[in-house]
Amino acid sequence: MRKIRKSNNRLNSNIKKGLMVAIPLTTVCLASSCSLDQKIEYEYSRISFSSDGKYSESKQFKPYDSEGKTEVLNSFMSYSAWVLNEDGKYQRDVKEYDVKRKTYEDVKGLENNNEQIKEVLGEPTKSYIQIKDTISEEDIERGAYYEATLYSMDNSNYVTVKTGDPSRVLILTGCLVAFTAGGAALIAIQKKEEKDKPKKLELKR
How confident is the model at residue 62 (pLDDT cuts 50, 70, 90)? Predict the structure, then answer.
């Protein structure tokens, strides 16, 4: 009986020691797995401007397109002044240019001059005539102009975004709480056993 009891005590002691080592290690693993679910988002800029002075700029830490691509096509459109035809309709010439590889610095100084635009951007990729039945007085007074929208990404400016699944985080948190509670219980049991352990009485001579 003493051998069996001694073996059980030794087994319980080994289990306790193993759990006491496993708990802090598990805690570290859980914390590490939570921190791994991160990704870097770079800063994206969009600049829209025109030859007659309109300008707007915005920045955000995600791509501007809805599909999550890293590149959005730039645009450069040249418009002639509206002309009233004999049939009472208005028309103007529209030209599109390829500015996929251009930056704001490349085109910001362009005047609304077809020859200068052609020299910097090359031949238009598309030309067509736009026709409308009616237009506003503001559009008539605006005359000829060009409009451009350019996108860019800044590799030197970024943020780190946590992307972990909320349900996974809750599960990991629950595991952490359970292991912590288990560790506390084991410590309490160990202290109780030490307290209840019979003390040897020494006889004084």
Answer: confident
- List b or e across 45-74, with b for residues whose CB sees 16 or more CB atoms inside 10 angstroms: bbbebbbeeeeeeeeeeebeeeeeeeebeb
- The Cβ of residue 26 has, within 10 Å, a number of other Cβ atoms equal to 18
Q: DSSP class of residue 50?
A: E
Amino acid sitting at position 68 = G
Dihedral Cα 81, 86, 90, 94, nearest 10 deg: -60
Q: Which residues contact 85 (CB under 8 A, 6 or more apart)?
A: 91
Whole-angstrom distance, CA of residue 76 vs CA of residue 126? 11
pLDDT digits 0-9 by tens, 103-151: 999 999 899 999 999 999 999 999 999 999 999 999 999 999 999 999 9
Within 8 A by CB and 6+ apart from 92, the residues are: 79, 80, 81, 82, 83, 129, 130
CA distance 78 to 113: 9
Residue 35 CA neighbour count, 13 Å, CB half: 6
